[in-house]
Amino acid sequence: MRKLVYYVAVTLDGRIAGPGGEYDFFPGGDERQSAAYSAWTNTLFPETVPTAYRAAVGLVDAPNRHFDTVVMGLGSYRPALDAGVGSPYAHLRQYVVSSTLEPDIDPAVTVVPGDPLALVGELKREEDTELDVWLCGGGKLAGALLPEVDELVIKNYPVVAGAGVPVFDGAFDPTVFDVAERTAFPNGVTLTHLTRR
């Protein structure tokens, strides 16, 4: 069965974005550190680079290594939409969970107004692929989908936001994950891969 993997950047205080959805405050280190970190993560997870940026980082023809599908909330989709990009991950099947978004926003995007748990359950049962489903965000969607999250890939940045969108925003539901692997980078970021116990 396919897995749902939440791959996301997080502050020290557990925020994935600021109060207005901003994410440009995540520190990348100096130019050399930032380039090395980006090259490493882009090579490991090339499909998580938005289609518009793939050419600039040499990923135009890079095959998907982990995911062939992305699920995101409206808050994660909104920055692309505001920039006039209706299909931010054209190299993936794209689902946006939203009860307010028009269903025909873009022909390459499927808007899901209802139960995200049912959607993810269907996606995980698909048998015609060996690649997994990427949960891109946001916090409320992640909170709703916590029962279906199989793995976490957390990029933890050395910054405190103070307020903003939590990595999980849902009911109290202690869920244990085991650390499978952890990598530290010179720019202060740690990337931790966790699996559901």
Question: TL;DR?
Answer:
This protein is of the alpha/beta class and 197 residues long.
Task: Please report the distance between the alpha carbons of the first and last residues.
Answer: 16 Å
Q: How does CATH name the architecture?
A: 3-Layer(aba) Sandwich
Whole-number mean pLDDT: 97
Structural class: alpha/beta
Please identify the oligomeric state.
Answer: single chain
Q: What is CATH's topology name?
A: Dihydrofolate Reductase, subunit A
> What's the level 1 CATH class?
Alpha Beta
SSE series: EEHHEHEEHEHEEEE
Q: What's the total count of β strands?
A: 10
Give a verbal description of the structure.
- Pfam families: RibD_C.
- This is Dihydrofolate reductase.
- Residues 3-189 form the Bacterial bifunctional deaminase-reductase C-terminal domain.
- GO terms for molecular function: 5-amino-6-(5-phosphoribosylamino)uracil reductase activity.
- By secondary structure, the chain is α/β, with parallel strands linked by helices.
- The chain has one domain: Dihydrofolate Reductase, subunit A.
- It has helices at 31-44, 51-54, 74-82, 116-125, 139-145, and strands at 4-10, 15-17, 67-73, 93-97, 109-112, 132-137, 149-156, 165-166, 177-184, 190-196.
- The strands form 2 sheets. It has an 8-stranded mixed β-sheet with strand order 5-4-3-6-1-7-10-9. A two-stranded antiparallel sheet has the order 2-8.
- Strand 9 (177-184) and strand 10 form a beta hairpin.
